[in-house]
Every structure is written in structure tokens, then in C-alpha cells.
Inverse folding.
């Protein structure tokens, strides 16, 4: 007779693993990415491939050098690479995703202890670093040949200058922008997948999008400028907001785990985004807003500690 | 359909189909029976028989060792082979009474005789429960007479029969619902009679529609006893969870169900109460589900307490393949055992054998927060594990670590396969022991 295994209960586990969760995120990202490849051409694919390869290679090399167990099998570096690529322009030089990928994995993730330990979103921090370091390159978006005259500017630029953008264009995503951020419909398909697979809840995307729209409306009113439906829709669908709300503000590691914490986090992201967009010089601002809110995560979690079952009074003694 | 439930919990493939269609078979023990004196919560029982003595079915073998304790009664007639130390599930040694069955089933006088329980006073009923050695048969093994002896002035308005059976694989209560529904209703009538004005609610998970139907039919004619279907979700059968589902009241670790006006008794136990009070039959047998993918014919056996696990597995057709793990109880809260010669206790609802037991290597927490959403106690297992691992027990307590019920949902759901509940339960036990020590020094 074989010896029997003895361990402390529970004796069964969910089939889901870190790897399967990351795989779900990759699947959810693919509609937006595939739209980007089709719309912006082979260069978008190339930038994405370089970005993913740089992230995975950076993690692998770092762990080999530091004699740490190699963790690239958990696919989290692939997700980082995809999210970085998603927020880049297809016209970026080839070395931009390399610098970005290495910065994201090495500086933001691995130096703080690897998966689960970093306090800022690696891909977004890398993107912000690239924007600050190579401003002119990072703001040169691709000219899209096939579309009408308005396509020479991104929707956010257009409305900032008082123009309007067609709703259909924003939904489909046939306008200039980052590789994976333009097609609202593709992003929503990805979001639906994440919701069905219970990887994310609707709390964060909804609070980010809702509060951004609300604060943009508020600040625009304060500035005494006209608020139109088209203007607000562009803020939600015309830039990186939707993709960021679905894929980046829902990053597990850098956002609160508590119920109310996630909602407060989403509202903080919306507030920062609106401030940057309405009062700052930039058209976008969501990436900066998320990494700023990432810094608040420990505090938000502390004040939103859940109230235990059957314990009267607050969650804390 | 919105069934009553609680917030949190996990949905697990329940594996109950393996044995739910198998009618209860009476099992005749082949060899010796081992009755452990510590098979309940509280003081161990004190043997009152000696080696060599002949005992009859239903004869007392051991006295309760205190108020919070339970006696032991002989499930067979035969000879006491020894009163000796035997290993128990957790590897400890405890006193055990070893019996040799003579196969005659000669009973003590009065065994199984009907009693007019309606003319008994509450104190007599509780004494009858005590003198039958009835303990919670769902797994905890808390002496039932202690549960029923509520303090003066405490008003009990709900007697809850816990028929959730939320642990995967276990079907013993399900079979009893189908085969002995009226015994359960009789038990509920006896229990509600102890608390004037109380209602009896039999909570059953919605995955047992036939059980709900059978017990509902048996409830007919008794206005204060009813069946409440519950949502199928683990741990719906947790005492605090079922109280909330039935009454919307919530209790914490410092409270007893009685503080919420409730008494919660497991389904098998309610039947044991009925047999003890109305038929003068002490608790000497229980239904055990023998199941798992390594067992040839998953079955439910009415088993004398003290029967070796090995015998029951053989009665279920033996193993199709040598198992890697055998569990007493369910897969979520049961005990993995190292030896198949361990006996069935009053609390052994299931013997579960798995062909494969995967050993998971934990990886870093990815902070997905799943453990928070499943925790039925609404705790933050991710944080509690960290404080437990750092031995920061003050912080552990401040974060309400003592509220943990050890259901294991957090460990089950963790994609990084971290051993959350294991660390938290260990820390909780440590804190409780320290508290006891500090209290005894005072």
C-alpha cells in the first residue's frame, strides 16, 4: 500500500491559477490589439511583438542574473508588454518599446520584488517615463490615410479645439490614436470577457469612466465653456480612457482589493484625469492619473478595511 | 429563483452524484470496534467498563468527563477486549475502548422502546439527550445537551435544523432526508417543544430538490416546522451563515447562536435526538458516505461507531486504484488520514478517497482580492496571512482574525495557491491557547 498524503484542509483548489488569470487578460486584450494591427498595419504588430519580447526577456534575464526562480511562465510579463504596446503609437521607433519594456519590468516590477510587489502599474509607469523622456516622439501619432480629413488629429485634440467627432468613428475606432486604444467596441468585447470570467468586476471601469465624465463636465462648467454630449463622449471613448479603465485601472497588484477601496480608487483616477485634461497641457492624462492613484492604494485599503460578519460597529477596533 | 443565503462563499463542483442515489445500507462490522473517548469537543469520556467484561447493545461504555462532554454507548453486543491508548486522526493518542462483536446484537432492556416524550419535562428531555451521548454529527462534535441547556432568561425563537450539507461529496444527510424525513421532523418537534413559542426551520440547499420535497411532506400537519430551501454555496452550512440565511441575524465569534435566539442542530443529529428521546436509543450508529473517485461503488452506510475505515471501503467495493489521499469528512474541512485502520467517530460523515492528490507550490500573491470576495466572514485573508506569518498576533486580532471560521474558501479560490486558511487557522489556534493560558493564570 502506498503511503497516504496528509495535509491540512482544504484538500481541493480551484482550477484557476495566476497563469490562467493572465491568459484571460491576454485573451481580453486581443480584440483591441487585433483591431490595432488591422487598422494601423504591420508596424503595430511589430511594436507589440518587440514590447512583449522586451518585457519577457527583461524578467528572464533579471531572474537568471539574480539567481531567482524564473517566473515568466505566469505570463504576467506578456500582459505588461501588451498593455505597454496598447498605449504606444504604431509609428514609434523600434527602440521605444524596448526601453519601455525594460523600464517597466526591471525598474518598476522586479526591483520591488516581482509579481504582486510593485506599487505602480509597470506598463503605465514605463509609458509615462517615455512620454517625459521622449516627448516629441511619443506625441507623434500616425496619419491614417484611409479616413476623412478630420483624421489628422486625435478626437481629444479635435474637441479641445472645439470640433466634433462622429460617434460611429469612436465606437469602431477608425481614428488616430494608440495601437489598442481606439476601438471602443473591441475594448468592450474584452471587458465583457473579463466580466464573464470574473477576472474583474464592473466597479472599477464604471467608477473611472463615470467620475471622469462627471469631473470633466464640472471643470468645463467652472471654466465657463460649453458642455455637449459629443464633447463628453469623446472624453470617454475618443482617447485612452476606456482601455485604461478596463485593462489598467483594474490591475490587481497596484489597485485596492477592498470593495469600497476599488470604487474610491476609480473616482480618484477620474478626478486626476479630469484635472490633467481640463487644466493641464496634455490631451490624455489617464496614465498619469492611474499611477498617481496607485500611490494612494495602501491608504485607500487601510480606510476601507471590510466590516467583519457579525461584528458591530466599524471594521476597526 | 432567489434562495436565502449569505454574502461570499464559493461554488464548488460537489461530486455528490457519486453517492446520492445509493440507498443507506446497514453495515455489520466484521472485527473489532474502536470507540475513542475524545470523539467530541470537551472533556474526554471516562470508561466505565473493564477489559474482559461482556457488554450489550446500547450499554454505557464511558461516562461523560464533565458537563461539556458526552458518554459512549456500545453499538453491538460483545466483549470489551481492551481499554487502552489508540492513535486518533491527528496523530495524538487517546484512551479507546476496543470491543469484540459477538454478532448477537443482544440489547440492554428498554433499548428501542417507545417513550412518551410529550409528557417529559424539558429537563428530562435534555437529560435523555445527554444520556444518549448525542453530539453534533456535522463535524464539530459539540455535545448537544450543552447546546440545548440555554441560560435562564434567553429566549430561543428559532430551532434551525442544518440540512445544508454544503461540503462536496457528502450525501449522508441527503439520504436521511429521503429515507427518514419523519424521524427528522419528530426530532424537530422534540427540540421546538423545549423552547415554547419557537419555530423549527429545516434549511436545505437547493441542490437537493428531492430532499426538500420529502422533508416538506413530512412537515405537513406541524405548523411550527417548515423547510427553507437555501442557495447551493459553500459554506452555507456554517453555523453563522445558516443563522443569517434563516433569520437575517448575524453573530460573531464572541456570541453563541442562542444570543441570536437560535439553536442550530445538524440534520443527522436531529434524528439522533429523536431516537434518543422517543425511542430510548443512544447514539451508537451513524450514516457514513464512502465515496471518491478511488472507490468502486460509492455508498452510504449505517455504520456502528468504531468501525474501521478500511472495512467500509471494502464494503463499498474497495479501491479501483490505490488512493493518494483519504479524507475523513469533506474535502473543504475534513481531515486527511494516514491510516485506514482509524475508526469511524460520531462526527465522521464521510470517508473520501482521491486517486490523485495534487500538491501545489504557492507563488507570490497577485492581490487579485478573490479571498476577500469569498470570505463568508468578510475578512481580508490576504492581510491576515501576512500578520500570521510575521507572528504579529496583536495585529492579527485587531484585524478580526479570530472571526475566521476556517472554512477554507480563501485557500480554495487563491489562483496563486497560497495556503491562506491554513496560516490563519494556525494563528487563531495559537492566540486562543495563549488567551486560555492567560486566563488560567489570573
Amino acid at each position: 500500500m502506498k503511503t497516504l498524503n496528509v495535509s491540512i484542509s482544504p484538500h481541493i483548489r480551484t482550477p484557476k491559477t495566476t497563469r490562467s488569470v493572465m491568459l484571460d487578460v491576454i485573451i481580453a486584450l486581443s480584440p483591441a490589439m487585433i483591431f490595432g494591427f488591422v487598422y494601423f498595419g504591420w508596424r503595430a504588430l511589430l511594436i507589440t511583438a518587440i514590447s512583449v519580447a522586451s518585457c519577457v526577456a527583461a524578467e528572464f534575464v533579471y531572474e537568471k542574473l539574480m539567481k531567482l526562480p524564473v517566473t515568466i511562465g505566469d505570463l504576467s510579463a506578456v500582459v505588461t508588454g501588451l498593455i505597454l504596446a496598447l498605449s504606444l503609437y504604431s509609428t514609434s521607433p523600434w527602440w521605444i518599446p524596448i526601453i519601455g519594456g525594460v523600464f517597466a519590468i526591471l525598474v518598476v516590477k522586479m526591483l520591488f520584488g516581482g509579481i504582486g510587489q510593485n506599487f505602480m502599474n509597470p506598463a503605465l509607469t514605463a509609458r509615462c517615463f517615455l512620454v517625459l523622456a521622449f516627448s516629441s516622439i511619443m506625441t507623434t501619432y500616425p496619419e491614417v490615410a484611409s479616413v476623412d480629413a478630420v483624421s489628422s488629429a486625435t478626437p481629444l485634440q479635435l474637441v479641445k479645439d472645439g470640433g466634433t467627432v462622429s460617434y460611429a468613428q469612436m465606437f469602431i475606432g477608425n481614428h488616430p490614436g494608440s495601437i489598442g486604444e481606439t476601438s471602443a467596441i473591441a475594448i468592450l468585447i474584452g471587458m465583457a470577457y473579463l466580466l464573464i470570467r470574473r477576472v474583474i468586476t464592473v466597479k472599477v471601469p464604471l467608477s473611472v469612466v463615470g467620475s471622469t465624465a462627471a469631473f470633466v463636465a464640472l471643470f468645463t462648467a467652472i471654466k465657463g465653456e460649453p458642455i455637449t454630449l459629443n464633447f463628453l463622449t469623446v472624453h470617454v471613448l475618443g482617447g485612452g480612457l476606456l482601455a485604461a479603465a478596463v485593462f489598467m485601472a483594474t490591475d490587481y497588484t497596484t489597485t485596492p482589493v477592498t470593495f469600497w477601496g476599488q470604487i474610491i480608487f476609480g473616482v480618484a483616477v477620474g478626478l486626476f484625469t479630469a484635472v490633467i485634461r481640463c487644466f493641464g497641457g496634455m490631451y490624455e492624462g489617464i496614465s498619469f492619473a492611474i499611477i498617481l492613484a496607485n500611490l494612494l492604494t495602501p491608504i485607500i485599503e487601510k480606510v476601507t478595511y471590510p466590516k467583519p460578519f457579525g461584528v458591530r460597529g466599524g471594521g476597526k477596533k | 429563483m432567489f434562495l436565502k443565503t449569505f454574502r461570499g462563499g464559493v461554488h464548488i463542483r460537489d461530486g455528490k452524484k457519486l453517492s446520492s442515489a445509493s440507498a443507506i445500507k446497514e453495515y455489520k462490522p466484521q472485527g473489532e470496534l474502536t470507540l475513542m473517548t475524545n470523539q467530541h469537543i470537551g472533556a474526554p469520556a471516562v470508561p466505565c467498563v473493564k477489559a474482559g467484561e461482556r457488554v450489550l447493545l446500547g450499554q454505557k461504555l464511558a461516562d461523560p468527563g464533565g458537563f461539556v462532554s458526552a458518554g459512549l454507548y456500545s453499538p453491538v453486543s460483545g466483549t470489551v477486549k481492551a481499554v487502552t491508548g489508540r492513535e486518533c486522526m491527528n496523530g495524538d493518542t487517546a484512551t479507546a475502548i476496543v470491543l469484540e462483536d459477538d454478532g448477537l446484537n443482544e440489547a440492554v432492556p428498554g433499548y428501542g422502546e417507545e417513550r412518551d416524550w410529550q409528557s417529559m419535562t424539558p429537563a428530562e428531555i435534555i437529560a435523555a439527550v445527554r444520556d444518549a451521548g448525542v453530539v453534533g454529527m456535522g463535524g464539530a462534535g459539540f455535545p448537544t445537551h450543552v447546546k440545548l441547556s440555554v441560560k435562564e432568561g434567553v429566549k430561543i425563537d428559532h430551532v434551525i435544523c442544518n440540512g445544508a450539507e454544503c461540503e462536496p461529496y457528502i450525501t449522508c444527510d441527503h439520504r436521511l432526508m429521503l429515507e427518514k424525513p419523519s424521524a427528522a421532523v419528530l426530532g424537530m418537534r422534540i427540540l421546538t417543544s423545549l423552547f415554547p413559542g419557537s419555530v423549527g426551520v429545516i434549511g436545505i440547499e437547493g441542490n437537493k430538490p428531492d430532499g426538500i420535497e420529502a422533508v416538506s411532506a413530512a412537515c405537513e400537519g406541524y405548523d411550527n416546522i417548515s423547510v427553507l430551501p437555501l442557495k447551493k454555496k459553500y459554506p452555507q452550512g456554517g453555523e453563522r451563515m445558516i443563522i443569517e440565511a434563516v433569520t437575517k441575524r448575524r453573530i460573531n465569534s464572541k456570541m453563541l447562536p442562542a444570543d441570536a435566539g437560535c439553536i442550530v442542530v445538524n440534520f443527522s443529529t436531529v434524528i439522533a435526538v429523536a431516537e434518543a428521546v422517543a425511542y430510548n436509543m443512544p447514539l451508537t450508529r451513524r450514516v457514513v458516505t464512502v465515496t471518491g473517485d478511488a472507490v468502486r461503488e460509492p455508498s452510504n452506510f449505517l455504520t456502528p461507531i468504531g468501525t474501521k475505515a478500511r472495512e467500509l471501503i471494502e464494503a463499498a467495493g474497495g479501491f479501483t486504484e490505490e488512493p493518494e489521499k483519504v479524507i475523513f469528512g469533506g474535502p473543504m474541512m475534513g481531515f486527511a488520514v494516514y491510516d485506514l485502520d482509524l475508526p469511524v467517530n460520531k462526527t465522521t460523515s464521510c470517508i473520501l478517497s482521491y486517486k490523485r492528490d495534487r500538491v501545489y507550490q504557492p507563488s507570490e500573491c497577485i492581490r487579485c482580492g478573490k479571498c476577500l470576495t469569498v470570505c463568508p466572514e468578510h475578512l481580508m485573508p490576504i492581510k491576515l496571512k501576512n500578520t500570521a506569518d510575521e507572528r504579529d498576533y496583536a495585529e492579527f486580532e485587531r484585524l478580526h482574525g479570530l472571526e475566521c471560521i476556517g472554512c477554507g474558501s480563501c485557500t480554495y479560490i487563491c489562483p496563486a495557491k497560497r495556503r491562506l486558511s491554513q496560516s490563519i487557522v494556525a494563528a487563531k489556534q495559537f492566540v486562543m491557547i495563549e488567551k486560555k493560558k492567560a486566563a488560567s493564570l489570573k
About this structure: The mean pLDDT of chain B is 94.
